[in-house]
Structure formats: structure tokens, C-alpha cells
Amino acid sequence: MTAEQPYYPRPVPPAMTSPAPTNGMSVAALLLGILGIAPLAVIFGHLAARDIRNNPPQSGYGMAIAGLVLGYVVLAVWAMVFLFFLVVMIGASTTAALGA
């Protein structure tokens, strides 16, 4: 007398899904922000963030935001350097005009 083994159905493995595609503009925004090409980093960052929000299966939102932040930081540095040289030039021209 052999007892029959209970039948257990074979477990089904989880379905293999591919990861969401990364938005190319977000990668471009991050790289341009790292390289210091601020205007393009800001433009690509905004375009990528909008595209990712409108098409949810895409990934790369963090890279788009990082590119935006880096782009705006570089733009702020450029603005401060420009203002510094502007103040220096105005100061130099005023000093020269006064005859000092």
C-alpha cells in the first residue's frame, strides 16, 4: 500500500518584464549640466521632465532634474562672473575718468 502523493501545481514563475526605457533627453541634460553647457542643459532638462511626466513608462526623471539643477547653477555662476567683471570695468572707467 503506497499512499498517493498530493498533487501540488507547479508554481508559475513571475513574468519577465523589461525595464522602462530611459528618456534620452534626460541623459543629455545631465551630461550637458556636468560639462557646464548650461543653456542646453536647462532646455533639455525641461523637455525631458515634461516628456517623462506625459509618458509614464519612461524613466530618467531624476537625471532630468539633476541636469536642470546643474544647468541653473552654472547659469548663476556665469551671471555672477559677468556682474563681477561689469563692476570692475565700471570701477576702472570711473577711476580713470577722475584722473586717479
Feature tags:
100 residues, membrane, transmembrane, mainly alpha, transmembrane helix, 0% strand
Question: Radius of gyration over alpha carbons?
Answer: 28 Å
Q: What does the main sheet amount to?
A: none
Stretches where pLDDT is under 50 for at least 5 consecutive residues are none
Total of helices: 3
- How many E strands? 0
Mean pLDDT: 90
- SSE order: HHH
Q: Give the strand content.
A: under 5%
What class would the helix/strand composition place it in? mainly alpha
- From the N-terminal CA to the C-terminal CA, the straight-line distance is 118 Å
In which range does the helix fraction lie? Answer: 55-70%
Q: What is the global morphology?
A: rod-shaped
Structural notes for this entry:
Pfam families: DUF4190. Residues 25-80 form the DUF4190 domain. The chain crosses the membrane at residues 27-49, 61-90. With 100 residues, this protein is mostly helical. The protein has a domain at 64-99. The protein contains 3 helices and no strands. Helix 1 runs antiparallel to helix 2. The longest helix is centred in the C-terminal third of the chain and has 38 residues, at 61-98. The protein starts with 23 loop residues before the first helix and ends with a helix.
